Amino acid sequence: MISPADQLTPLLAGCAQVLSEKELQAKLALGRPLRVKLGVDPTSPDIHLGHTVGLTKLRQFQELGHEAILIIGDFTAMIGDPSGRSVTRPHLSHEQVLEHAKTYQAQAFKILDPEKTIVRFNGEWFKAMNFEDVMRLNSRVTLQQMLQREDFRERIDKGLPVHAHEIQYPIMQGWDSVVIQADVELGGTDQLFNILVGRDLQHEEGQHQQVAMMLPILTGLDGTQKMSKSLGNAVGVSEPPSEMFGKLMSISDKQMEEYYRLLLHEEIPEGTHPMEAKKSLAQRLTARYHTEAEALHAREEFELRF
């Protein structure tokens, strides 16, 4: 492993917020591989480009010699993350979630090194809990804490329902961190509350608290809301090359800067015509999840058609 100072700069690159940089530096100085957690809920069969922001940061930790722990939320997905939602997510059965999880893992390994990835399903520990265990876990947090969440508070102010099972979500995500003893948790900026619950639970259990590394959220093809399959504004990593290329060509010129920065980790080359910049972006991302030849063919098809 390279020195903590040499690791810190690339790891902080692209993060929207880190709680805290000082804690991360101290953990890196321990001289051991850190346990880095990223949770994904298989609420649909496909991973989209928005998911790849976190997966790419997890891969970066892998390449620096740390332990990458991918949590497949087979139990949390049955609730559905309420973060940023104005309505309750539709309920999924465990069978549906497990079916989605099959493709989730295969698609995640387009980015992560499967040989260096620890995959855990949170059903491993939640399925073993009895009702007394659930009550004890719930006693760790207060309703006032949960109502600090902006999305819950907004729904209540508007007279919209917040169901009791939704309040369980941040508690469950936090408990995942306790079980795997996470040193670092990655998540979009909308995950801050959930990750802080994990820090609180770890502290109560006498564990060192995880560092929260918050990553920017990729906007979807509509240019306004975050990328989401349920909103119909997503680009799936397993979509056919021509479809992926075409969808990426539909983003606005304004969004290109964001896509270059979050997905390619670079700026648009100065002086490049917007149309050429967009074609280059679409071709490079299509090649990343397919092949160079398929990406070039998708571009040629697009140019012939339009």
Characterization of the model:
- Helix content is 51%, strand content 10%.
- With 306 residues, the protein is α/β, with parallel strands linked by helices.
- The protein has a six-stranded mixed sheet with strand order 1-6-5-2-3-4, sandwiched between helices.
- α3 links the parallel β2 (35-40) and β3 (67-72).
- The protein is globular and about 65 Å long.
- The N and C termini lie far apart (49 Å).
- The mean pLDDT is 92.
Strand content: 5-15%
Strand order of the largest sheet: 1-6-5-2-3-4
Sheet with most strands: 6 strands, mixed
Count of extended strands: 6
Roughly how much helix do the residues carry, as a percent range? 40-55%
Short synopsis of the structure:
The protein has 306 residues and is of the alpha/beta class.
Topology:
Elements: H1 4-12, E1 17-19, H2 21-28, E2 35-40, H3 49-63, E3 67-72, H4 76-79, H5 94-108, E4 117-121, H6 123-126, H7 131-138, H8 143-146, H9 150-157, H10 164-180, E5 184-188, H11 192-204, E6 211-215, H12 241-249, H13 253-264, H14 274-289, H15 292-305
Parallel strand pairs: 2-3, 2-5, 3-4, 5-6
Antiparallel strand pairs: 1-6
Structural key phrases:
6 strands, alpha/beta, single chain, six-stranded mixed β-sheet, about 300 residues
